[in-house]
Amino acid sequence: MRIAGKNYKTIWFNEKNNLVQIIDQTKLPHSFEIITLSNIDDAVKAIKDMKVRGAPLIGGAAAYGIYLAMKENPSDEYLKISSDKLIDSRPTAVNLKSAIDIMNRELQNINIKDRHEVSLKLAQKFCAEDEAYCKNIGTFGKDIIERILVEKNLDTINILTHCNAGWLATIDWGTATSPIYHAIKEGIKIHVWVDETRPRNQGASLTSYELSNEGVPNTIISDNTGGYLMQRGQVDLCITGADRVLNNGDVINKIGTYLKALAARDNDIPFYVAIPGTTIDQDNNKITNTMIEHRSSSELTHMKGLDDKGQIQKIRIYPEECKTLNPAFDMTPGEYVTGLITECGIFESSEIGLREYYSAAEANR
Ligand code: MRU
After folding, report:
1. pLDDT in tens, 235-289
2. What is the DSSP letter of 121?
3. What local confidence, expressed as pLDDT, does residue 365 receive?
4. Nearest Cα to 260, choosing from 288, 235, 285, 289?
5. Phi then psi for 73, rounded to 5 degrees?
6. How much is the pLDDT for 325?
């Protein structure tokens, strides 16, 4: 999608210079910087430091991380060490594991001398597939938007989203935003309520930034405002992404998603979760503590922004001795989710719904 009128993806292989490049998302929205990942440790650090973030993009960065590792040393041993390092880089987004599993499965059958070349093709394929999945999510999700617009006889539809599940969280298109971008292309009038998403503000810093760059009308709201707007009839639809959908349909996503789903249920507002299949955790149907990332207290105690001279500054906003708790994700039970918008269609967020998804995905293969 576009930044200042120019098309980008979030991660790409620069064929001319033989480099893996990313947009450094920690610098957005104040500064747009492209950086290079030169080796496996760069890839691990980019994921850990959230230069790349968002479940599908973490998967894409991990696939390229394996390529960078195979470029250095294509041995079985190094493949294992590199895969373990990547797996440990962030705990919640299951796309990371999906990417590592796919890369390992394919590379195990490849002669060591060919692994460098093949792993690049595999990483590119993984990312191209993610892009295609997100595009399909958009066509299915657009139908939901159109239906609500007609049913409610609206001129403009108001959609609320949480965190960043836009193209910056994927390779392109986004999950929650893909239906929005597809609908806008067809002339449907949309306004998006963007949850700020404390403490790292991915909504305000990334979602609003990318929507504005695509010309989509949007308004940043504090995380506590959604319920107020829902009660006043100012939200027609909620769409979020997810970091992990458990096999029973429970959805793990950015902290605060659960409260929005509760408020949506109380106000009869459809609450959809948009995901590619790589976000489904087929091995687990129960949340465990290790699935929820707990992040540094400095995310709460400090704020980053521009000073009067336009320089980025970090300031402390709470006393040094204050105690904090900072879980980055929460779990929304599947029963609060109206449906999962996937690359294969829309499914109930339940064990039965996911079984139907698996059959559809198999048939599409
Ligand atoms: O901590 P982040 O920025 O990686 O969290 C991102 C989210 O929670 C997104 O909503 C989620 O990954 C869905 S991405 C399409």
Report:
1. 999 999 999 999 999 999 999 999 999 999 999 999 999 999 999 999 999 999 9
2. H
3. 83
4. 235
5. -160, 105
6. 98
Mean pLDDT, residues 3-17: 96
53 C-beta closer than 6 A to ligand 1? yes
Q: Tell me 53's DSSP state.
A: -
CATH architecture under which domain 2-129 falls:
Up-down Bundle (1.20)
**Is residue 94 a contact partner of residue 55, using CB atoms and an 8 Å limit?**
yes
Concatenating the DSSP letter of every residue in 290-303 gives GGS-B--THHHHEE
| Nearest-atom index, ligand 1, CA of 165 | 15
Q: Cβ–Cβ contacts within 10 Å for residue 62, how many?
A: 31
Interval between CA 201 and ligand 1 midpoint (Å): 11
CA of 104 to the centre of ligand 1 (A): 24
CATH fourth-level superfamily of 137-364:
Translation initiation factor eif-2b; domain 2 (3.40.50.10470)
What does the domain layout of the chain look like in residue ranges? 2-129, 137-364
Report residue 287 as tokens.
Answer: 């949340």
Contact 177 CB / ligand 1 (< 6 Å): no
Cα torsion 97, 100, 105, 108: sign: negative
Residue of 10, 160, 163, 260 best suited for mutating to test ligand 1, as the one with most atoms within 8 Å of CB: 163
Judge whether 337 and 249 are in contact, CB under 8 Å: yes
The Cα 14–Cα 22 span in angstroms is 10
**Is the shortest distance between the CB of 170 and ligand 1 below 6 Å?**
yes
Q: How confident is the model at residue 200 (pLDDT cuts 50, 70, 90)?
A: very high
Catalytic residues: 243
221 to 116, 145, 146, 230, 232: CA distances (angstroms)? 46, 21, 24, 13, 15
What integer best gives the mean pLDDT of the chain? 97
As a whole number, mean pLDDT of residues 80-98 equals 97
